[in-house]
Amino acid sequence: MKEIITLAHGAGGKAMESLIQQVFVPAFHGVEHAVLEDQARIPMRLLAEHGDRLAFTTDSYVVDPIFFPGGDIGMLAVNGTINDLAVGGAMPLYMSCAMVLEEGLPIEILQRVVNSMVEAANAAQVSIVTGDTKVVPRGQCDKLYINTTGIGVINSGVQISSQRACKGDVIIVNGSVGDHGAAIVSARTDLKLEASIQSDTQSLSELVQIMLRVCPDIHCMRDATRGGVAAVLNELADASRCTMYVDEKSIPVSPDVRGVCEILGFDPLYLANEGKLIAIVPESAAELVLCAMRQHPSGAGSVVIGQVVDQQGSAVVMETQFGAKRVINRLVGEQLPRIC
Amino acid sequence: MKEIITLAHGAGGKAMESLIQQVFVPAFHGVEHAVLEDQARIPMRLLAEHGDRLAFTTDSYVVDPIFFPGGDIGMLAVNGTINDLAVGGAMPLYMSCAMVLEEGLPIEILQRVVNSMVEAANAAQVSIVTGDTKVVPRGQCDKLYINTTGIGVINSGVQISSQRACKGDVIIVNGSVGDHGAAIVSARTDLKLEASIQSDTQSLSELVQIMLRVCPDIHCMRDATRGGVAAVLNELADASRCTMYVDEKSIPVSPDVRGVCEILGFDPLYLANEGKLIAIVPESAAELVLCAMRQHPSGAGSVVIGQVVDQQGSAVVMETQFGAKRVINRLVGEQLPRIC
Amino acid sequence: MCLGVPGQIVSISDHKSHLAVVDISGVKREVNVSCVIGEREPIMELIGVWVLVHVGFAMSRLDENEARRTLALLSDLGEFQESLS
Amino acid sequence: MCLGVPGQIVSISDHKSHLAVVDISGVKREVNVSCVIGEREPIMELIGVWVLVHVGFAMSRLDENEARRTLALLSDLGEFQESLS
Amino acid sequence: MKYIDEFRDPDQARILLQRITKLADQVASLRSTPLQIMEFCGGHTHTVFRYGIEQVIPKSIELVHGPGCPVCVLPREAVDHCVAIAERPDVIMTTFGDAMRVPGSRKNLLQAKAEGADVRMVYSPLDALSIARNSPDKEVVFFALGFETTMPSTALTLQQAYGERLQNFSVLCHHVTTPPVLTEILQDNQLQLDGFIAPGHVAMIIGEQPFQFVACDYGKPLVISGFEPVDVLQAMLMLLTQIHQGRSQVENQYLRVVRQSGNASAQLALCEVFEIGEKVTIRDRYAPFDAMVRFAGHCQSDALPESISEPSYCAEVLKGRIRPLQCPLFGKHCSPSDPQGALMVSSEGACAAYYQYGKAEAMAEI
Amino acid sequence: MKYIDEFRDPDQARILLQRITKLADQVASLRSTPLQIMEFCGGHTHTVFRYGIEQVIPKSIELVHGPGCPVCVLPREAVDHCVAIAERPDVIMTTFGDAMRVPGSRKNLLQAKAEGADVRMVYSPLDALSIARNSPDKEVVFFALGFETTMPSTALTLQQAYGERLQNFSVLCHHVTTPPVLTEILQDNQLQLDGFIAPGHVAMIIGEQPFQFVACDYGKPLVISGFEPVDVLQAMLMLLTQIHQGRSQVENQYLRVVRQSGNASAQLALCEVFEIGEKVTIRDRYAPFDAMVRFAGHCQSDALPESISEPSYCAEVLKGRIRPLQCPLFGKHCSPSDPQGALMVSSEGACAAYYQYGKAEAMAEI
Ligand code: SF4
Ligand code: SF4
Ligand SMILES: [Mg+2]
Ligand SMILES: [Mg+2]
Ligand SMILES: [Mg+2]
Ligand SMILES: [Mg+2]
Ligand SMILES: [Mg+2]
Ligand SMILES: [Mg+2]
Ligand SMILES: [Mg+2]
Ligand SMILES: [Mg+2]
Ligand SMILES: [Mg+2]
Ligand SMILES: [Mg+2]
């Protein structure tokens, strides 16, 4: 019989214990300890080695489908939270993993997801040290949801903030935009698109460390996830109360992502990314940062896409290919495929 | 029109921003900051004031129904994570809150849940400093799920561990068992039971601080959630490799919880609690700890239920009302109502 | 086999369908009382009566006298025992 | 109104139902080609043809010559302009 | 709790135990083998283990755990039928919680549910009826099992469905009656039982008469007993007294619940709805509500997975011929988390009871 | 991307702009008011805003945004019908993504979905047909809207459903045709338009002839145009040339796609399935697939919530009489997150386009 998740796996008894022993303990370093205790314990001196402020962030992952070209929900859950730490300038160190599983989920699927979490965590040298598993009746969640909450430490020299964008600062993105969103849309069966678009899911931790090495004074940094680059630029313009100019031509979009956008009437600026960041750096350091970024595989496609032009207002203005300007707003609802 | 959650509220655009501004920002201290950044930032010196080890724990809450006598999913989510920190001897300090919302959820329901999280967090002086909101299509989750991940700090003197139960140690519970599980079973509509059983959902943080004050050397402590008191005793007996004796007569069970158990053929030892802990303390300190516990409302019903009798094996043995012995195992599957 | 629990009928919830509410240690549940209504006995008379409940049906009335007698027998035994020791 | 995208037919997926696969900048989608099949033209002949796709239907063939002519006209304009300046 | 707490009183139990010990000593002194008393009913087995009664009664009394557990006597084919019907997309299968874990040849109902079948636990067959009323576009099936105690509830539910002319409700009937199972035990030459503790809740329905053959035809004393520990001890004492006095009668310890002639209304309902032969079947009048008829295609054996039979040890344990610990699979290949037989499933099952409450070895260690 | 990138080339655009500017200056010097050109179609409006065309063309040309957006011309009652049908538990309502946000009197389809109706977005009506095949126990309805471009896809889908004798598929038809809408604009005395940029994808189906009346009867020049910015600029240049030369003709800029007589196969399908009168309705032969017939009860106005009409400004904007910024609600009470009219919903809608890409005030500031 194919092993599947049953409600018993969430009931706190033997079935749950054996699931934890079978799937989680072999996978996650440190969880062995957490299985024995209700909480992971981390000596504070280990943290103090890395800086003076703890960074703390949480995200739930509910992506559908859970496996998609270029990644899966497990990889996403680890990298997504790592990135939310990294873009604050923190060294990501520890992570929790809480799963909500649907009754009937094949354990083999869970195992694949866990394996890919392990791989992603190891690659970023992050330890998953505490966890939780809940099982809900069939139909009450879609296969599985993952929450990861991350802890990192910010070095005392670093002061990244959404409020620090200044006139003259240069806006950099580390590669083509919209890949994740387009990959998910193509992987969804209902639109029946077939594309070889890979999600850009990746850890940005190393890249950020390299950037901070050449320019500890990065002003703003954010990963461009839900809402895409448009959302991040707007958030930063709002928080810093500044006006940004972005050059449409300079924004890298890969051909098949463009294909998806043409077919559905989407704008790639609003598509989610899972391995792209927007950095706003002092003009004087821009060249150096860009060079450093390009040395790293995660930053090979880095380009300048714009500049902060005014310390007033709170607007993102795009110069179109025709030299005209248009305002880039945030998305209002979801992007829905258009016929017109 | 009644305001309800739509997919747009999870899409990273304006709808999401206004939900956050409307519901979360007014409620959670510190979230204002987290809305601006991708991560909360906590000065390490604030942590160091409380001890030398960080405690870190996560739990997802998927309770059905979300409102039940004595509490709701929000209160549960805050207290549950506080308790997982507290029973490790940590002072709970910060918390994340990640919500998965079902499309169609009335915003008023979300507001009630958030209010009750705020109340619970304030009562325990814990700050919710970072959060996340995802919306899944109707039918893909059941109303809402909450993940809370907590950070606390353990004082250098404290060494609570599941492995420290020693021969002679006394086993204490802080009140009647099974209340939460019985309240949920009664609140479920399918069994059509009507009872005035209140969930015992409460923060144990203050109680634990009091206990540690009179006995910093508490050996083991755990909150008896899923799997009930039986699961906790077994876990501790396993981890400490010891044999425990428990006296059936001494275990407090309230009359209506007994009623539910008689009707459905349940054993209260396996019912979940959300405000009960098992503490294993050196025999010499037992009286003192018990006295201290009884001073606090959360510990008013504290009693000794047994003792560690042997430093070998790994068994929980109960002395029945008739002076006979039976082994208390863990639950195998879920407890299901019996006809026989 | 056949879990049965004593409970007290506290109200009649549906005269026609013979449904009554039973209180079992503070917990209430609707049960069918067809099997414990006497012939020509008004259903309201059941209020206050103790019944044995199995899978949502009242299957027997509890006989208080018999219960008392059983227990009395035991305490007689006890006294007898004591008188021996 | 009426989002239409040019794509190239790369294969026929269902002869009977007139379904073909169109490639749009590397993205493939099955579309109905009933409206662009010539009379008595074998459907296989469509492979390689560029069509304008709207809501899953190929609605017109793209005429390469006309496209080239339009663009040529523009560059003539451009040369004319340059000759002026 | 009235009618419960009094019968769990350790003081009362102590008195009874002293009398039992005394009497057992007297009886034992006259024979070479221990006294073998079968508690027929799983409910009694449960009480025996829950309160550790075996440990406190004299060694000269051996309790033999009988087959009176509706879940334990359910053949795998019954579960296979049930799973096959439950897996139809138009069906909502309803049943009692403990029926959901009983193994079928390939899977149990919990597994079928996890794999997508709509299987719902109900407290009462009346709740299954409500589900049928509220889901007019679904076929609602109630998987009915149990001895005579449970049969009237199924019967009354079917009568109600009949009265309402419900179109989408049916019952998959796997009820069994007590006397044939008792007879089988009595006819087993390997068993030398000295008396029976008989199921009080069955007697509550059918009365004392159907048990008379045990005393009259087989010459074995039998005491109808309640389910609290004091009830069981008292019944044991009554049995010992009969044995001591050389009597073989049907006696009733459970007077507060069991009337001599049982419950007439219940018997009537039962009679009206069920045909009681070798098997319990639904009468023709109620055929539209008989899932065996309604889903005939799914109940033919060729429509079912080849049935894999239970380990042969189970039947031996079920009849009281061997004790669970004597089964070579016990605790090794067979445990509640991976049960080989139904006896390891229900908390009424002797094997599960041994495992859950007993673990005699562990006891010995302490 | 072939057939796209060439027509987005800024160099080509620059050339065209220089010619346009020159010609516009000549034309403008002969008149006191700016030239008013209507791009009838929302697709063109989208291009105009997406590329900022209004900012680069000479001030002497004023673009008037027309009503050619299927979503913007959808009456609230149509959405109300659709919601009423979608809310039936046995119905799966399918439609295009952008139809889901169009306001009804009380709610739009997205809201109905969030409240529990089974509403699914499809890319193609053929996908709705697949859903119907795979859900035989549900009524699958396709909410069809759009101008002539989209009508053949609905027609072919209905023919397919007819051929397959699908029992559970129907279409709620709210298609509209272009000429009557154009006529209404031409008959409006308040509008003094100098020419039209006409929808290339409508012409791809119906050909050039149906636009002739604009030139012949109303004496206005009209150029059928593609949707890339270079297309639009070239069409504008062609219009200016006609105006400069005093001609009023129907010309076709979009030669690579639009044949003079349109698409015969598409016209045939369209003709076979639809009756085109004042409204577009489904012919009797296809009545079993007509949701208006199938759910007649839900489409009667008394079965619907009292319809709340759009702000009157919307009609004014739709006809090009006022510009979105002149609507007193714009940006204050009416925004994409809380739209008062359909024009604020679709990204084709002039109001949404102004809001999303325009924000002229913001522009002015910079
Ligand atoms: S231990 Fe398992 S296999 Fe052996 S008799 Fe008991 S149920 Fe059957
Ligand atoms: S701004 Fe709103 S109300 Fe005004 S015309 Fe546009 S859509 Fe209508
Ligand atoms: Mg986050
Ligand atoms: Mg899914
Ligand atoms: Mg982020
Ligand atoms: Mg994130
Ligand atoms: Mg947990
Ligand atoms: Mg935890
Ligand atoms: Mg629910
Ligand atoms: Mg917990
Ligand atoms: Mg815990
Ligand atoms: Mg987040």
TrEMBL record, chains A, B:
Gene3D superfamilies: PurM-like C-terminal domain, PurM-like, N-terminal domain
Superkingdom assignment: Bacteria
Domain PurM-like C-terminal: 168-317
Record-annotated PurM-like N-terminal domain positions: 46-154
Residue runs in coiled coils: none
InterPro entries, A to Z: HypE, PurM-like_C_dom, PurM-like_C_sf, PurM-like_N, PurM-like_N_sf
Gene Ontology biological process: protein maturation
CDD domains: HypE (cd02197)
Family stated for the protein in its record: Belongs to the HypE family.
NCBIfam families: hypE
Protein's UniProt name: Hydrogenase expression/formation protein HypE
Gene source species: Ketobacter alkanivorans
Gene: hypE
TrEMBL record, chains C, D:
Gene Ontology terms, MF aspect: carbon dioxide binding; iron ion binding
GO biological processes: protein maturation
UniProt-listed Pfam families: HupF_HypC (PF01455)
InterPro entries recorded: Hydgase_assmbl_chp_CS, Hydrogenase_HupF/HypC
NCBIfam families linked to this entry: hypC_hupF
Similarity comment: Belongs to the HupF/HypC family.
Name of this protein: Hydrogenase assembly protein HupF
Species annotation: Ketobacter alkanivorans
TrEMBL record, chains E, F:
InterPro entries in the record: Hyd_form_HypD (IPR002780), HypD_1 (IPR042243), HypD_2_sf (IPR042244)
Pfam families, per database record: HypD
Gene Ontology terms, MF aspect: 4 iron, 4 sulfur cluster binding; carbon monoxide binding; iron ion binding
Coiled-coil residues: none
UniProt keyword Ribonucleoprotein, yes or no: no
Keywords: Iron, Metal-binding
GO biological process terms held by the UniProt record: protein maturation
Domain of life: Bacteria
NCBIfam families: hypD
Family according to the record: Belongs to the HypD family.
Record's protein name: Hydrogenase maturation factor
